[in-house]
Amino acid sequence: MLSKIIDHILSTLLVIALLKFLPVFFNLDMFDPVQGTLEQMQVSDIAFGHIRDYDNYDIDTNIIIVNNGHLNRKQIAAMIEIINQYEPKVVAIDAMFRADKGDDMDVPLQNAFKKTNKLVLAVELYKNQDEAEIWDTVKTSNSKFNTFAMHGYVNMYEDPDNFRTVRMITTQQSVNDDTLLSFSAKTVMEYNPELATKYLKRNNETEVINFKRNIDKYKTYNYTEIFEQSEELENIKGKIILIGYLGPEPGLTFTEDIFFTPMNPKYVGKSKPDMYGVVVHANVMSMILEEDFIFKFPSWFKNFLLVSIVLLNMVMFRYFRTKFFDYYQPLTIFAVLGQLVLYSTIIVSSLHLLDIEIKLGNTFFAILVCVLCFETYTDSLKPIVMGWYRSIRFNRKRKDN
Q1: 3-state secondary structure string across 26-59
Q2: CB 351 within 8 A of CB 294
Q3: Where are the domains of the chain?
């Protein structure tokens, strides 16, 4: 019994060692297509991109998005002056005004900001060194505008292995002994402090964004509609007015400030980015206001599941080989395929039905190589080691005799 337990542990360690050193091989150019596909694929994206019925979600009436297109500062000032007439509760601008453009451009914007009840401006966090672990620099708008505003950082938590893909958001960051809230959290804090405080008390460094709406599920105005001052603008009163870029023309998708999200129906391979950054922020705000969060397990749980699943596979393969030797090969194939389907179903269902994210990391790949590692250990490594061991014992006995 003890020898079997040792065999199971050693064969499991072989799988873990393979996962550990596999990236060395994946750095080779010949593996780039395979690597790219594996990096882009997350089973949980199926729940967002294919299963979730977005027609079931109503428009979030708390947030109104205004497209600022490519307006200059004087035009933005005129637009904000009009918006202020309709008494919004918070005006949040997903843009920065860094350079000095002269009094003709800057003074009107200063005056508009000064008249705004609660103004949140975007800032960006930077690291002076690429390998630095903490943010050490905050880039803000010009000081002439900061006087009238509160700030929240707009840095997106992009998937490090998948360019411009947003699945999570950081809640707050420490910068030079100061703590800054994200742009979304800061805006909600000014709109509904109670709900924002509940969100922060979750004490999660990152939150999985519970995407439920794209631009069609928010009331949006193009800047031209603001200047026309239609009767519909009465809807602005008491709302969050989120000003940001939705393209130079309404209804057309451009590549500026746009990201991939799990809502994208094409989750593997090349596709077009599907959500503007300002709409990503709106989704985070909606999530906070609706208290509709996704539960995620701590990071150690992913490693625990991986080791447990691999170890159980080793026990199962040995059982098949011992009890059903003639059917060992087809049984292992069906077992591997069955697990891939089972775990995929559990991941998608838990996210779709329970708002629980289960991340298995490299577990799917580990399952695929389990049989290889089991047979390599059982048929090659173990016999070789045992042969050496017997040879050493035999030579020692001969010496003793």
Answers
A1: HCCHHHHHHHHHHHHCCCCHHHHHHHCCHHHCCC
A2: yes
A3: 2-40+297-400, 54-293
Whole-structure pTM value: 0.85
pLDDT (tens place) for every residue of the chain, 401 residues total = 777 888 888 888 888 888 877 655 544 444 444 444 444 457 778 888 888 889 899 999 999 999 999 999 999 999 999 999 999 999 999 999 999 999 999 999 999 999 999 999 999 998 876 666 678 889 999 999 999 999 999 998 765 555 578 999 999 998 888 899 999 999 999 999 999 999 999 999 899 999 999 999 999 999 999 999 988 899 999 999 999 999 876 555 566 778 889 998 875 555 788 899 999 999 999 999 999 999 988 888 888 999 999 999 999 999 999 999 899 999 999 999 999 999 989 999 999 888 999 887 788 888 988 998 988 888 888 888 777 767 776 666 666 65
